[in-house]
Amino acid sequence: MKEADPEFYREASSLQYGKAPKVSEDKIGRMVKELKDRDEKRNTFSRRRRFHEDKDIDSINDRNEHFNKKIERAFGRYTLEIKNNLERGTALPD
User: Fold this and answer.
1) Which of 28, 35, 53, 60 is the most exposed place for a label (fewest CB within 10 A)?
2) What angle do CA 82, 84, 87 make, to 5 degrees?
3) What separation in angstroms does the CA of 62 have from each of 9, 15, 40, 57?
4) What superkingdom heads the lineage (predicted)?
């Protein structure tokens, strides 16, 4: 690049300031190929989801989710009827 442009390292007062150097077609082709490869790789990537999309969300973060699981294990059988009544709307007094 320096050989092709004698003012490659130019001063701020140069009239060539801000002019972009010529880029060869080979370099442009390599960049396009690399971008297409990246895009293809991104489309084929998939990670294991930690959550089920069908499941109702009842937590605000991971610690709360863990806490809710512990509470459900300990008290789930006692609160099942109350939860069902709340879902149906029959737990609220008239």
Assistant:
1) 53
2) 110
3) 54, 59, 32, 12
4) Eukaryota
Say if residue 65 is exposed, middle or buried (CB neighbours under 10 Å; 0-12, 13-18, 19+). middle
Residue 1 contacts residue 8 (beta carbons within 8 Å): yes
Q: For residue 22, what are its two tokens?
A: 């010529």
> Residue 8 carries which side chain, given as an amino acid letter?
F
User: What is the average pLDDT score of the chain?
Assistant: 82
1: Cα separation from own chain's centroid:
39
